[in-house]
Write a structure and sequence with these properties.
RXLR phytopathogen effector protein WY-domain domain-containing protein, mainly alpha, single chain
Amino acid sequence: MHLKYDQSRVFFNPEFSHWLQYVDDLAKFSKKEVSAIQTLTAKYGDEILYKMIEDAKVAIRKDPDEVFHLFKLDKVRRDILSNSDFTDWVKYVDDLNAKHPEEPKFVVRSLRKYFADDYILTMTQSAKSVEGTRGIATKVEDDLLRVWLYSQKTPDDALGAIGHGELMYTLLESPLWGIWAKYLNAYNSRYPDKKATVIKVLTRKYGDDHVAEILEMAKSKDTTQDIATKLASMQLQLWLRNEKTVMDVFKILKLYRTESDFSHSPLLNPWVAYMNTIVTVNPNKMSVLLSTLETRFSERPLLQILDTAKKFPSMESAATQLKAEKIEDILREGYPPRRHLKC
C-alpha cells in the first residue's frame, strides 16, 4: 500500500486493513522484527502518527483493544508497563475517555485479556518502585480496582483473585495485602449494605484455625506484628460476639489433635487469649473456667495451659496459684516431677 495518502485520511484507505494483515503475516515468517506501528512511526514520526490517529477519531481501530493490537502490545509478555508503546496507548485511552466520558474505557480491560489479575497487580507493585513507571502503574492498579467495584466483585472473590492460596502463610507480608485491604475499604464505601470485615473474609477463606496460625506467625515478625496483633484481637472479639465457649474455640482451633502435649502447638496462645477475653469481660467466670480445665486435662497439658495463662494479667494470679497446687499434688503422689513438668 502506498502511504502517500493525506495524513488525515490514510486510515480511511480501504487497503489499510489488508496492509495490516500483510505486516502481521510478514512478521511471522521474517527473521527481522516487523510491526505496523514501527513502519508508520518511521514514515510519520511519533507525534504526527499519534495526531493522525486522534484527528481521524481512530476510524481504523475505535476500540482500545484493537489499538492495543495495532501497537503489538498483545505480543508483549514482560515489562509491558515500561514499554513506550504501552505509554502511548494509555494516553490514547485517556484522550478517548476525555472526548467520550459517557462511555468510559478502562486500560485494564485489555490487559486482563492477556494477564491474570494477580499478575497485573504484581507488575504494578514492581513498577511503582521505579520513578519512571510509578504513575502508569498506579493508574493501572486503580483501574483494576474500579473494574472490580463496577462488577461488584466481593472482597472474598478479590482475595481469591490475588492468589490467596499461595499467599496464605505470608499473606500479611505480601504487597498485595495492602491492595486487597484498600479494595475492601472501597467496596464497603460503595456498597454499605454489603459491608465486609477483614477478619470475617479471612475466616471464610481459611477457617478459624488457619487464620489464628497465620496471625501467630505474623506477630513474631517486626514488619507484620502490629497488623497481626490488631487482627488477632478482632478474631477474639468475633468469637465473643458469636458467644463461643472456651471449649467451642478449643474445637474450632482443632487443639484436640495435640491435647496430650501443647508444647509444639502455635494455637495454644490464641486459645488461652480467648480465655483471657472471657474472664476480662466477666471475672466471675474464672473459677468455673479453671475447674473445667482441671477436670478436662491431664497434668502435663494443664500445666502448659497455666504457664501460658500466666502471661495475661487477668489470669496471672489464679493460674499461678492453681499451678502451684498441681505441682504440690504431683510431688505428694511421689511421681518424678519431669514426667509431668516437661513442657
